[in-house]
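[09:14] KT: can someone run the structure on this one? pasting the chain below
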Amino acid sequence: MRSIFLRIVLGVTLLFASSSSAAVFADQTARLSLPKADRVVVLKSERRLVLMRGDFVLKVFPIALGRYPKGHKQYQGDAKTPEGEYLLDFKLKNSQFYRAIRVNYPNARDRAKAQALGKDPGGKIMIHGLPNSMSAERVGHPYIDWTQGCIAVNNKQMDEIWQMVDAGTPIEIHP
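[09:31] RB: done, structure tokens below
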């Protein structure tokens, strides 16, 4: 998994470093006409969500995270975004945010760790758009980590993710 992670980071870095790479990427994406991702990778330290198909990077999005983004989510209310391997288990078209896709946090290990702390692990971790009642500027998106532990994008980006990611798609969330 470490080598795949390094290839993704290198690919994202190269993608943003070269305008010609960006042009090739845009051309490939246009020809593929919003292909389905078979994996979602979140690079918390880079503030990037990467849609993958095999080893190919389909699309990269800037993101905002939980208000305290460093470290793995421990319990409800800590405003941290989880780290690890999960599934995107269902899509929610109508929510308090512009569309949402749920991350199946907590898993058994997350529940056990929270229980050892005497806490509730929480839940309702999503990839979602902006709050229905606020603009990107109002929440400081994407420059400020403003969620309670979710992964946020703007609404246009959420439309693309919505089309490219099906329920059941694995998600890897890296520090």
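[09:33] KT: thanks! Confidence is low (pLDDT under 50) at residues 16-24.
[09:34] RB: yep, looked fine to me
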